[in-house]
Amino acid sequence: MLLRVGGLARSTRLRGGAVQLFLPRCGRGLSSGPPPPQDPEWTDTVEYLDESGALLSTAPGARPAVPGADATILSGASAHPLPRPAAAARLAALALRHRSGAPLSAALSALPSAPDPPLLLLAAASLPASDPVPLISLVAWARLQPWFVPSDDLSSLLAARLPPATHSSELLALFDDTLGLPDPAAFPKTLNAVVSALATHGLLEPAFYCFKRLRDAGFKGLETPAYNALLSLLLTRGLAFKAFEVLDEMASSGCALDEGTYELAVPALARAGRIDAARKMFDEMKQREGVVRAPAGVYSVMVDVLAKAGRLDAAMGMYREMVAVGHRVSTAVSTAMVEGLVRSGKLDAGMELWEEMRRGGLRPNFGLYTMVVEANARSGRLNIAAKLFADMEKAGFFPTPATYACLVEMHASAGQVDAAMRLYHSMANAGTRPGLSTFTALLTMLANKGMLDLAAKVLLEMKSSGFPIEVTASDLLMIYIKDGSTDLALRWLRFMGSAGIRTNNFIIRQLFESCMKTGLYDSARPLLETYVAGAAKVDLILYTSILAHLVRCQDESSERAIMDILSASKHKAHDFMCGLFTGPEQRKQPVLSFVREFFQGIDYDVEESAARYFVNVLLNYLVLMGQMNRARCVWKVAYENKLFAKAIVFDQHIAWSLDVRSLSVGAALIATVHTLHRFRKRMLYYGVVPRRIKLVTGPTLKMVVAQVLASLESPFEVSKVVLRAPGDSVLEWFKKPIVQQFLLNEIPSKADVLMHRLNVMFPSSAPDVRSLSFPRSLGMSR
To answer: Which residues form the Smr domain (predicted)?
Structure first.
């Protein structure tokens, strides 16, 4: 017979306000047997009633009944204990029914028997994981009971059930409570669960805070999943240095690394530049038991990092190993390898890998196509670049302006006009705006090819694209000038003027000098007038270069044109030249004073070299004009102003010398005559006779000076670069009347002895603009 026992007991004393049920083996309706002995712990009598309320039996009771141990349920005539799963289910049912608050506490406190920690754990585990509130309330109530004992299983279960997104404070409180226990090392599952839960749900600061607390406390029980979760979170947030800190702690604590750890650490070390450490860990991963092969992602990162770091041999080895272990190489890995090889200058190896990739069925992406096309173009393989460019368009990739520009510029640099212009028009038809470098390369190519009309068309298109064209047009003008294409340069300058494009005075001067060099004097004068009108100052060097052209000129009409150009320069040296050839009545002062006045107005700090150049050319001109006296005055004043300070050396009674190696022909002749006159005066008037006299001429002027002196039967002996003679012999030579006349600027009447022979042996030449030539004829009159 089944008896109702719950809620039917009557007692005068109840412990804790709850009815404690216990079923003895006696009374009516029960199985036969002796009644249970009287236990001193039993403090009251329990009456068992039937459904009608009649008394069935009585038995001692009023002590806590232990589920699973005390017989508290009658089934027929048998008494059975309440199963522990049923008691746990009762706890769980109460927690689910009341969820939280005072009703739950009252219901749990009214239980017929107090739960124990294992029963609490069993009840907590049976609660649904989707709703953590009943579990939190149940554990909170249990913590206030005297029978509660903290356990790692219950705490870890609670940590695993709490969602960090909404209960992070409860997790941190659980962590703090656990760490505050006398022996926190006995709760490894709880601490691991808290760290893993926080890290897995992206709570970086709380997770790393817990990690640091555990590290500072000397806790060595963190397991690999917790470390992996923390590593993954730190690397996701870009905190690689913190991840390496966690990795070092993991190694120092003796925690084993699993495949997930290697998958996180190896790519992170490689991307952070710690390539050697990444390779070492990669080798450890391959040798570790349980790791069949490294993941494809790790291989990809290693190949990419090694290729970009320039370690191409190691990258290629890793690439081959990746293929050998059975991984399918991705487009990104192939791109990294090809890019690394191409950028390091190994274009052949890169193209071999490119073909291997194509044979393997991989479709190159846009970036790889662009890089390969540009690399082949820059290396001069224009045919291959053009083929790859066509393949790129067929594959549906629209070339970038940079790719177009690279191809156009490389074809232009190679001088392939047709291909460059075809690409240029294709670029324009595709709606791609050429850049400044593309226009510059095209125009430079057209200028070098002399295609002036086409260059003008492209330049105007460049202007319509919004680019400034003044500098580019001037650069093209300089190309024509440097190539010696003076006619094209003049045509281009006229085009620039018609298009309203101005150039700078430097280029105008360069074109003027080019016109002077080619004899286009009629075009040179307007250029010089433009130069002067543009607020540019004709310096002494430019004026002297024009004068040098006059010295070499042999055509009378050209001489008039050059004289007009000299006049148009408006330089003060031209006024000096005009005054030098006038008489003393117009000058109103002697020649020597006039020359000294001009040279005093020169700023030698700035124009010393220009003044030296002017003296050389002027003396050439004066000798050709037969103006020996004026030439000697110019030399005398130039020497006084120390333009040729080291030309004359008096070494007491040992040696006197004259060095004319840095002088023009006319200047060397005048310097020789003037200096020998000084030597003669010092030797005859003062009686000072040196042991020897040297004329240092160098190989160029040696024959000129030697011929002049040989006609006067001089005692000077000619060597490689020096004319030398004993002082006594020179003294006797100075006493001859013809020598005296020669040194006093009285030229002998036999002009063929000196001038004609010099003209035959040293004809005029036409070297560079600023070089000095031999005199055309010392005896020619103007």
So the answer is: 658-734
In a domain, 670, yes or no: yes
For the domain that residue 745 is a member of, what is the CATH number?
3.30.1370
Strand partners of residue 46? 59
Calpha distance 62→44 (Å, rounded) = 5
Instruction: Please tell me the distance from the alpha carbon of residue 58 to that of residue 553, in angstroms, as a whole number.
Output: 154
In whole angstroms, how far apart are CA 620 and each of 106, 224, 624, 658, 707? 129, 96, 6, 19, 17
* Lowest-confidence pick of 160-164, 313-317, 346-350, 382-386: 346-350
Asked if 714 contacts 733 with a C-beta cutoff of 8 angstroms, the reply is yes
Q: Which residues pair with 717 in a beta bridge?
A: 724
Q: CA 445, 769, 621: angle at the middle one, nearest 5?
A: 165
**CA–CA gap between residue 424 and residue 472 (Å, rounded):** 18
**Residue 185 lies inside a defined structural domain of this protein:** yes
Helix (H) or strand (E) holding 695: strand 692-696
Q: What is the pLDDT of residues 248-271, one digit of tens each?
A: 888 888 887 777 777 787 788 877
**Bridge-based pairing state of the strands 71-75 and 692-696:** unpaired
User: pLDDT-based confidence at 10, cuts 50/70/90?
Assistant: very low
Burial of 774 (0-12, 13-18, 19+ CB in 10 A): buried
Computed on alpha carbons and rounded to an integer, the radius of gyration of the chain in Å comes to 55
88: which residues sit within 8 A by CB, 6+ positions away?
Answer: 119, 122, 123, 126
Structural domain containing residue 133: 85-148
Q: Report long-range pairs for 340-345 (Cβ below 8 Å, ≥24 apart).
A: 340/306, 340/307, 340/308, 340/310, 340/312, 340/315, 341/307, 341/312, 342/371, 342/372, 342/375, 343/375, 344/310, 344/312
Give the chain's domain count: 3
**Torsion sign, CA atoms 190, 195, 201, 203:** positive
Instruction: Specify the 3-state DSSP secondary structure of 27.
Output: coil
Q: Report d(CA 673, CA 778) in Å as an integer.
A: 14
In a domain, 595, yes or no: no
Per the CB < 8 A criterion, the answer to whether 522 and 532 are in contact is: no
